[in-house]
Every structure is written in C-alpha cells, then in structure tokens.
Amino acid sequence: MTTLALFDLDHTLLDGDGDDLWCRFLLRHGLVGADLQARNEQMGADYRAGRVSVEAFSDFYAGLLAGRTPVFWSPWQDRFLVEEIRHRLPDAARALVASHREAGHRLVLTTASNSVIAARTAADLGFNCWLATELAMVDGVYTGRVKGVPNMREGKLRRLRVWMAEQGLPADALERAWFYSDSINDLPLLGSVGNPVAVNPDAQLHAHATAHDWRVIDVLGKAML
C-alpha cells in the first residue's frame, strides 16, 4: 500500500516564508512598486494569525506577476532560488525528506505559495510531485489572478483529494499518511491524516498539537514554544 509523506514548505522545510521573500526580492530588483512593501508585511502578519482570506492572500501574490510571461519570470526564478532560498533549506529539512524517501514513501510537497514561487524550491528539495496555487494566464501572460482552487486551508485538502483520485489512490490512504506543517492554516489537512506532525509550529498550532498529542519537532534549529 502507498504511504504518502506530505510536506508544507514555508517555515516547515524552508526557514522563511517564500511569498514574503519573493516580494522582497522583486522590490529589491525594482520589479514591483515600493508601495507593495507595507502591504506585503501586513499580508504576512495576517496570514500567520490565520485571519487573512484565502482569496486576498492568493490574489496579492498572483498580482505581483501580472502582465508578464513565464519566459520573462524564468531567469528571475533561478536567481531567487540562488539568492534567497537555498541557504534557507537546512540540512535537517533535507534529511527529513530523505528519511521518508528511503522508507519508500511517496513524497508530495503541498504549499499555499503559487507555482512560480514554489517550483524551483520543490525541485531543489527533490520532489517529483508538488501541489501549489496555480495561476491564470491569457494569451501566455499572467493575469494576476488565481486559476482554480487556491492550495490553502480547506483548499489544500481538497486539491490533495483530487490529486489522489487522479493517481488512483484510495481516499483511506490519508489514514496512513504523514503531514508536516508549521501553521494553523493547515489544520484541515493535519486533522485528516493519520500522522500529523507540527514542525516549529506557530502558537495556535502548538496549542492544538499539544492538546491532541500530536508529535512536535524542530527542523529549523529554532527555540520551540
């Protein structure tokens, strides 16, 4: 039987938030207006508190790409990986992923970040399968809107179930699955797997994990709550 090992990305395997880092990267290189800095900071605070809407979060980061093509963004994605991401992927994170690979589990990275932000990181971590928020395009140009269901909160569980059906995996595979996450935003999926693990969790998730006797681990080398 297939055992799924599911991993969130930001603040779980990545020591940082990919969406925030991407926006700061674009600001630094003059690819978006300076007025977006304050909005980005507020978006991050609202996300961590679990109070931002899925639509507002997803559309804000999709909007950073609007009016440009995948060909335009490709070299910037490469630079982003080198400048901002690789040194924030600790050895412990890579080892955790490798441990499930060596156990013969099927690995899936599942992140609320959009595909442009997450694609290079997923590949660098060795994931052959990953789920992210998809982006709408018209005539090969990003519109600045999301395509389909954002891969966030309940949408993360919904998208995973669709993917499982496409892969011919039974619904009860979730009962054997592992899922690693830091965020209260991932509670719908954490509560649906047989092996939920809180990784350097935020305060709300830490409280929930403790109350439900979930495993809590440190992957990022930071003080636990």
UniProtKB/TrEMBL annotation:
Record carries keyword Magnesium: yes
Molecular function in Gene Ontology: hydrolase activity
Matches recorded under Gene3D superfamilies: HAD superfamily/HAD-like, SG protein - dephosphorylation function
Keywords: Hydrolase, Magnesium, Metal-binding
InterPro entries linked to this entry: HAD-like_SerB, HAD-like_sf, HAD_hydro_SerB1, HAD_sf
A Pfam family annotated for this UniProt entry: HAD
Top-level division of the source organism's lineage: Bacteria
Keyword Hydrolase found: yes
PANTHER family, alphabetized: PHOSPHATASE RV3661-RELATED (PTHR43344:SF13), PHOSPHOSERINE PHOSPHATASE (PTHR43344)
Record protein name field: HAD superfamily hydrolase (TIGR01490 family)
Organism: Hydrogenophaga laconesensis
